[in-house]
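Colleagues,

For the teaching module next term, I've prepared a clean inverse folding example: a structure given as tokens, and then the sequence designed for it. I'd like students to try predicting residues themselves before seeing the answer, so please don't circulate the second half yet.
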């Protein structure tokens, strides 16, 4: 006689293995026979919720409307180290654009793609449309955060995440809070989440603060810090994280939050120290390993960065970006036998045209390093074939065109690069140098000023501006 597994137990097994569709299908069959089975209803709502669940602590998706129509005012001249939105307010300990690429908000490119960290807040609607946004979360989906503590909360999670009906979720949370005589910290957190989603940040702050007074939980600290980051108060968020660490020593998510804020404020040494603290608590933390590896690479230590990226490979991280970074580290560490094979693997794993463009651009960069300018030219052309908005490829192509004597083509490429990435100083400086050589001094001066705005410490730009001013004074 064949022994079959109980359907509800099988559904629960699927749920534990994160096979939510199979879990939901089995629950539906159970409910066809027993429509009033509460356990099956509860498990099915949880499965449907998890299928579309987005970690609210991690993902901070600002739509174009929120970014461009935000009426909250910030200080136009913020003190150094007090603002995430204004470039040039770092502690001065961060890398310069000459060493590490910058985002359009003035922050260095991070070693780990997170929502709202690669591009910051764009200044124009055109930049906002180009801004990449993602719903992925850097936090492990299976992290323990106290969700689904009781069956009664599953309805709220279903309405909030699966149906995305914030208004009804807010009404439910408000009624539940009132029913609990305003003493239930969990429902106050849910109220705060609803207010945050609606853009009512001060009301959200009040609910999270009240929840912390009733019960201190890690998630509540993370939600409240997220509010402070949205209203551009990173110092308050840092103090809150440290307060949470006093209550929960060694908590990885709190340490990671501190490291991220330091990194966004261009205080890379402090960020690296906190990422190292994260690895002391969790030596398989992908984000910390990637960010430390990236920092070593940009501080001219490719051999050490290679060790960190190899560690990620040993942990099972297998994607285009990792092999791309491995290829660059191998090249700068003079391990040429592994360079091209790493880039070949990166091309095979590329999931979209943008990734293909980045890999071909880096192969072109390697070709420049070995003085194969023909290969470099072809690689940069391929990069533009996959992504026509790749500003770095336009800039490098312009230099190669100038070496061939094609001045007008070079100038056109530089103007395109400058319009696509106004936050980069290289196209502006190259355009200024080219214009100065062909005698267009006014255009040269304008481009040099833009280069100085993007990178005030650039010595060559300052020298060019001095020469141009002396020439204008002599006239």
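(Answer key — instructors only)
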């Amino acid at each position: 006689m064949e022994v079959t597994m109980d359907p509800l137990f099988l559904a629960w097994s699927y749920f534990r293995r994160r096979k939510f569709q199979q879990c939901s299908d089995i629950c539906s069959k159970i409910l066809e026979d027993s429509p009033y089975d509460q356990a099956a209803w509860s498990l099915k709502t949880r499965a449907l919720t998890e299928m579309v669940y987005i970690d609210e602590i991690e993902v901070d998706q600002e739509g174009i409307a929120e970014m461009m129509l935000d009426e909250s005012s910030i200080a136009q001249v913020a003190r150094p180290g007090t603002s995430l939105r204004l470039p040039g307010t770092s502690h001065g300990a961060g890398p310069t654009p000459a060493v590490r690429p910058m985002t359009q908000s003035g922050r260095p490119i991070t070693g780990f793609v997170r929502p709202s960290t690669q591009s910051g807040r764009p200044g124009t609607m055109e930049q906002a449309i180009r801004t990449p946004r993602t719903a992925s979360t850097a936090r492990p989906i299976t992290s323990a955060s106290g969700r689904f503590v009781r069956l009664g909360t599953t309805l709220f999670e279903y309405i909030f995440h699966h149906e995305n009906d914030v208004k009804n979720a807010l009404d439910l949370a408000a009624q539940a809070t009132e029913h609990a005589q305003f003493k239930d910290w969990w429902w106050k957190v849910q109220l705060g989440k609803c207010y945050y989603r609606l853009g009512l940040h001060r009301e959200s702050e009040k609910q999270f603060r009240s929840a912390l007074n009733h019960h201190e939980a890690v998630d509540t600290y993370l939600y409240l810090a997220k509010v402070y980051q949205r209203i551009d108060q990173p110092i308050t968020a840092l103090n809150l994280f440290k307060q949470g660490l006093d209550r929960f020593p060694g908590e990885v998510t709190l340490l990671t939050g501190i490291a991220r804020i330091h990194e966004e404020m261009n205080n890379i040494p402090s960020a690296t120290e906190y990422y190292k603290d994260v690895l002391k608590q969790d030596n398989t933390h992908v984000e910390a390993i990637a960010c430390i590896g990236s920092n070593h690479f940009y501080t001219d230590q490719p051999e050490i960065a290679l060790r960190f990226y190899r560690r990620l490979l040993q942990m099972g991280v297998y994607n285009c970006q990792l092999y791309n970074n491995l290829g660059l580290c191998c090249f700068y560490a003079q391990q040429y036998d592994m360079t091209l094979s790493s880039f070949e693997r990166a091309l095979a794993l590329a999931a979209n045209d943008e990734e293909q463009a980045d890999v071909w651009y880096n192969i072109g960069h390697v070709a420049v390093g070995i003085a194969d300018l023909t290969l470099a030219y072809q690689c940069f052309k391929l990069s533009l074939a996959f992504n026509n908005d790749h500003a770095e490829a336009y800039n490098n192509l312009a230099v190669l065109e100038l070496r061939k004597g094609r001045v007008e083509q070079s100038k056109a490429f530089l103007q395109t690069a400058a319009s696509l990435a106004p936050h980069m100083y290289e196209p502006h400086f190259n355009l200024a140098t080219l214009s100065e050589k062909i005698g267009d001094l006014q255009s040269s001066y304008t481009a040099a000023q833009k280069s100085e705005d993007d990178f005030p410490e650039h010595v060559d730009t300052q020298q060019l501006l001095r020469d141009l001013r002396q020439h204008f004074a002599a006239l």
